[in-house]
Design goal:
The chain is α+β, with helices and mostly antiparallel strands. It folds into two domains: about 130 residues, Phosphorylase Kinase, domain 1 (2-Layer Sandwich); about 100 residues, Orthogonal Bundle (Transferase(Phosphotransferase), domain 1), CATH 1.10.510. Helix content is about 40%, strand content about 25%. The protein contains eleven helices and twelve strands. The protein has a seven-stranded antiparallel beta sheet. Strands 8-10-11 form a three-stranded antiparallel beta sheet, covered by helices on one side. The protein has a two-stranded antiparallel ribbon with strand order 9-12. The chain is globular, with a radius of gyration of 20 Å. The termini are far apart. About 30% of the residues are buried.
């Protein structure tokens, strides 16, 4: 798959609405008038997925079907609920745009991840207030801690290609007939930082204690204990932040 395939796209702005859809020509886009001709039909499909896979203060993930083809829609809740993200959209990429771009970049570097097919965004007063990303559903088996060797090998291959995962928990990987695929790559980062590579291993160790040995402790070097210390500081900071939120009655969903 070459780069050009991922760069072709068209934008559709539906009349009498504040929604715009970016359609990516990667051979996996939905077909037919269900979405391309009628905005209401597309909106209903995405607004009310057939199955909800995940729902928290950060995002909602669900699946829907068009013409017997299954898709996944991820709605970035923070784009809707947090004023900062809406204001930032005036100058910077939205959460949906970031996830879309990272997915294409990973695929270009040969790292398996679902391909986005639609990016649907709602704009008000020039700010993006809703950002929904649609992927082609990938059939496969979710990995567990028993698949530590395969997960570590996949993450290590990402490192060799200049990427760190930043969320390498077993549930973010599935096994398909074509190999392992990483899901939800919004946190991935293009970098060759040895500290961040070691930090990936620290995160994997939480669910898979054998991860450091599988990766290679000698290869990690002194960056591994340094990453452990950094992770402890991050956890301490989060505990203090959440404690202060509870103390002052601040909600996770506040804008």
């Amino acid at each position: 798959m070459g780069k050009q395939m991922f760069n072709r796209q068209e934008r559709v702005r539906f009349k009498y609405t504040d929604w715009q859809v970016s359609i990516h020509e990667n051979g996996a886009k939905p077909k037919g008038p269900d979405w391309h001709k009628e905005f209401v039909s597309l909106f209903r499909k995405l607004e009310n997925p057939d199955v909800i896979l995940k729902h928290d203060h950060r995002s909602e993930v669900g699946t829907f079907t068009i013409d017997s083809v299954r898709y996944v829609v991820k709605k970035f809740t923070l784009q809707r609920t947090r004023l900062w993200f809406r204001l930032a959209s005036l100058l910077f990429s939205t959460l949906g745009e970031i996830a879309c771009r990272k997915s294409f970049n990973l695929a270009t570097d040969g790292i398996s991840t679902p391909k986005p097919v639609l990016l649907m965004q709602q704009t008000r007063n020039r700010m993006v207030v809703s950002s929904w990303l649609v992927y082609r559903f990938v059939e496969g088996q979710t990995l567990t801690s028993k698949d530590a060797a395969d997960i570590v090998s996949f993450v290590k291959s990402m490192h060799r290609n200049g990427w760190v995962h930043r969320d390498p928990h077993p549930a973010n990987f599935i096994r398909t007939t074509k190999g392992i695929v990483t899901l939800d790559p919004i946190r991935v980062c293009s970098t060759r930082s040895r500290y961040l590579r070691a930090y990936d291993v620290v995160l994997m160790e939480h669910d898979m204690p054998s991860a450091p040995d599988l990766y290679g402790r000698m290869e990690l070097g002194f960056w591994f204990p340094l990453a452990i210390t950094g992770h402890k500081l991050v956890r301490f900071y989060r505990a203090v932040k959440y404690g202060l939120r509870r103390l002052f009655g601040l909600s996770q969903r506040s804008t």
